[in-house]
Amino acid sequence: MRELDGADAGGQFVRTALSLSGLENEPIRIENVRGDRSTPGLRPQHLAVLETMEAICDAEVSGAAVGSETIEFDPGTDAGVEKATVPGGSYAVDIGTAGSVTLLFDAVLPLASALEEPLSLTVTGGTDVAWSPPIEYATQVKYPILRRFGLEVCCEVDRRGFYPDGGGRATLHLAPSDLEPIDLETRGPVDGVRAYSTESASLADSDVAHRQAGGALERLSMRDDDTGGIDVRTRRLTTASSDCPGSAIVLRLEHAGGLAGFGSLGERGKPAERVGEDAADAANRFLESDAAVDRHLGDQLLVFLALAGGAVRLPAVTNHVETSLGLLERFGYEFDRERTSGSVLVRRA
């Protein structure tokens, strides 16, 4: 059993470790779960991830309780089998809180490389909540990039869920996939931007979705550089049913080398225009680098980089990236890092 220490990490460490355990057919024990957080141990959303992976991998698990700071996960594949296979099937999970739907999906995505049959996973929880990517970041940025490199993935969003009530519902569909080496070394010129702005039905009278998009696109158009302006290709405004008020915006920058995404969530007392401006400010900071992906996508692609090979140019090596690389190296994957003034190229050795 591989011993792992999460004292300096959060939930992503747990999700990636479970994915790798299932794929490598290697039992793991994680101590100091989410030790880097103010409330360590499993929260309901992390427990939902553990129980989902238990069901999909037919694993034996200990420590499956809210607050648990030590867990064990044994994928249960016959001894001597070097690489596991995953049977597929249909699963449904209710996180029970506004815990992130997209982050639960993140733990399952790598399993596509070991699927024998298609898999569908319906999750009820938060689709657009703090500390996780909004659902449209996943569907419009992350999943299109992963499909480009062989991952057979799509997602249906039935209902939006904002904090604190959650209640959103989305279904992830995966098919057996042959991953290809990731080639995201260069960005090239930006071709255009797509804005996806969502308001709950209770905010429609205040025109929140329109105002968010307007704030974002106006801020982007004010860039003082030689881009000549960024072509607005899509402005999608959505009024969604939801158990509680909320809003979100995602900007998708399209460039010669791929995609980058930037999201922001509405907050009580925060003008809708400012919500959009926050997303645009993140996009403008990205454009000041020569990275090929945004910092969130760069971090989330590392497990696929380990599995398939290739290289990704990140804006920077953040604490999240360092933690993820350290975990992957514990499983035997090696990486080279090449720093420049405006980015870091991470390549699987």
From TrEMBL:
Species: Halostagnicola kamekurae
EC number: 6.5.1.4
Gene Ontology molecular function terms on file: ATP binding; RNA-3'-phosphate cyclase activity
Active site (UniProt): H320
Protein's GO biological process: RNA processing
HAMAP family: RTC
InterPro entries attached to this UniProt entry: RNA3'-term_phos_cycl_insert (IPR013791), RNA3'_phos_cyclase_dom (IPR023797), RNA3'_phos_cyclase_dom_sf (IPR037136), RNA3'_term_phos_cyc (IPR000228), RNA3'_term_phos_cyc_type_1 (IPR017770), RNA3'P_cycl/enolpyr_Trfase_a/b (IPR013792), RPTC_insert (IPR036553)
Family label: Belongs to the RNA 3'-terminal cyclase family. Type 1 subfamily.
Keyword entries, A-Z: ATP-binding, Cytoplasm, Ligase, Nucleotide-binding
Protein name: RNA 3'-terminal phosphate cyclase
SUPFAM superfamilies named in the record: EPT/RTPC-like (SSF55205), RNA 3'-terminal phosphate cyclase, RPTC, insert domain (SSF52913)
Functional note: Catalyzes the conversion of 3'-phosphate to a 2',3'-cyclic phosphodiester at the end of RNA. The mechanism of action of the enzyme occurs in 3 steps: (A) adenylation of the enzyme by ATP; (B) transfer of adenylate to an RNA-N3'P to produce RNA-N3'PP5'A; (C) and attack of the adjacent 2'-hydroxyl on the 3'-phosphorus in the diester linkage to produce the cyclic end product. The biological role of this enzyme is unknown but it is likely to function in some aspects of cellular RNA processing.
Entry binding sites for ATP: D106, H296, L297, G298, D299, Q300
Entries under Pfam families matching the protein: RTC, RTC_insert
RNA 3'-terminal phosphate cyclase insert domain location: 186-287
Gene this chain is encoded by: rtcA
Major localization class: cytoplasm
Residue ranges annotated for the RNA 3'-terminal phosphate cyclase domain, each copy included: 9-331
Cell compartments where the protein resides: Cytoplasm
Reactions it catalyzes: a 3'-end 3'-phospho-ribonucleotide-RNA + ATP = a 3'-end 2',3'-cyclophospho-ribonucleotide-RNA + AMP + diphosphate
GO cellular component, one term: cytoplasm
